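G.,

No rush on this.
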Amino acid sequence: MYRRVVLPHKEILLGILGAAVERGEAGPGALGVRTASTAPRLVIAAHTEHGTVPQGEVEAVRTPRC
């Protein structure tokens, strides 16, 4: 699952994080492979625990509220 979910999206997520750092919306420490793989891993964990992951849960992981 890691190879099918996390790795294909790593570059996309790194690009999004890089843009956030450039805009000042995230600190330089946010730009890394570990951070980029966190959201997909949370979705995988939710799937492992509950089965089907509701769309609302995916949205909550994708759009964190600070």
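When you get to it, here's the other one too:
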Amino acid sequence: MKTKEKYATEINGTAKGLGRAISLNYELDFEEGQVITLQKVESWSDGGKFTIGNDFPLEYQFVIENEIPCHFVNYEDEEEINVLGAEDCEDEAEVLLPAGAKLVVTGVPKEVDLEEMGYYTVTFEYKED
């Protein structure tokens, strides 16, 4: 049986404008130009509806502004859906980014975002090796 890590390395497309939402009980510290290397497989969304699974008070919206190679989840592949725990989640439009992908911070969270929208926004660009 394949693993989430194996699926993530099976790149089957590219996407621009991927998003990810998280909520935490502490603030993250980002700097423009900072390079983030993903330490594990991450699930992002290609314009789908995603619900955060906790009630922490600080919400972050992450956006990758440029094209990035990724694995689009195949919601018709029963084995893949079972491995990913993505049953009945088609409207999330999930894509997987493999561990080791590099993202450069291009826009940092601003207090005004939290005040006006209720969440922080952080933007990234994919960086090829």
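The longest strand covers residues 120-127. Strands lie at 13-15, 18-24, 35-37, 42-45, 58-64, 68-72, 94-97, 102-107, 120-127.

Enjoy the weekend,
O.
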